[in-house]
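Reader question, answered in our methods column.
A reader sent in the components of a multi-part assembly and asked whether the whole thing could be modeled at once rather than chain by chain. We filled in our standard form and ran it. Here is what they sent:
COMPLEX SIZE: two components
ENTRIES:
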Amino acid sequence: MNNYVIAAYTIGSLLLWGYALSMWLESRARVRVERRQSHDRKTDGGRP
Amino acid sequence: MSSVQGRLIRSYWIAVALLFAADLVLIIRYTPDEQTMGAVQKIFYLHLPVAINTFLACLTAFVASIAYLWHREGWWDDLAAAAARVSVQLCAVVLATGMIWGRAAWGVWWTWSPRLTFSLILFLLYVVYLVIRSSVEGRERRAIIGSVYAIIAFLDVPLVWLSARLLPDIHPGSVQLEPAMKMTLLASFVPVTLLAVGLVVTRFVLNRTASVTANSVQASKPRDIRTAPLVTGAALHGPKAIRQANGAL
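And here is the structure of the entire assembly that came back:
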């Protein structure tokens, strides 16, 4: 396989799937924050 | 998000990844090489579908911006922002694959032909759209400025499309393909389009969640600036103290 073709498909795939991965990580981080906030609301921030 | 929704989303992305991998196998192993350019022409099966999806993403941003100015509903603005962000990503792929192909086929990384120039301008227009959005204060003001800008930025899309047809350009006006190549090209549109749709929808959901959170924070802000120190101080002592402070106002 031609090196130019390999380079084009590698860069193209990285740009597209890398962005998809970044959004997945962002959504996971948000879910974690929401879960922590809802936990804090239930326990009043861990205070007695 | 329910577990069923989560499972559906995961299945969608797995299906797109599998289709993408299958398309790569089809391109590399089963599609014949073009006679004059050889194997380098195989870049075309990624370049063209991504280019068409860039136009569709720009069109989505354009339509959503008009709809926002018409209806003034925040979710249209979130959709426009999502489509514009994805169009930047797609346009970067078009430019990168085009440059690599140009180096292999014409011996140069870049030439200032009309289509290449308009494509670079399109990329820069949508990058600037994102910069403008991040620099404008106030949700409604940002949405209005962004919408007007996105409508104007879209005017470059017909120029990219028509430039190779109406002006002397290094790109061919039309392409003749063998049946096997045509089939591969059509097959390549499926994973690339599904991927682009998935990216726009995911970005839209993330934008929407952020907007809803920002609106709820805005709604829970104290009504009078003089009361702000009381609530801010209460924030140091937890949600119960904030509720008590809000109740005391």
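What stands out: Chain A touches chain B through 26 residues (CB under 8 Å). The CA atoms of residues 8 and 14 of chain A lie 10 Å apart.
Send us your own complexes using the same form.
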